[in-house]
């Protein structure tokens, strides 16, 4: 999963879509359901970090 850095407001929707697409691809091809859950959990953490950054930077 890619690491998030500061994002401008206009980039947030496409970045979230990219995070979701990556997580779905990884989860769909995971060897175990635990790995699939790890991928989706990491995506949620990344999206939450993006939301926090958006709030901080207006």
Automatic annotation (TrEMBL):
Tree of life domain: Bacteria
Name by which UniProt lists this protein: Uncharacterized protein
């Amino acid at each position: 999963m890619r690491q998030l850095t500061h994002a401008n407001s206009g980039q947030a929707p496409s970045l979230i879509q990219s995070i979701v697409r990556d997580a779905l691809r990884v989860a769909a091809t995971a060897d175990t359901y635990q790995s699939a859950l790890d991928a989706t959990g990491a995506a949620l953490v990344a999206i939450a970090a993006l939301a926090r950054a958006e709030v901080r930077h207006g």
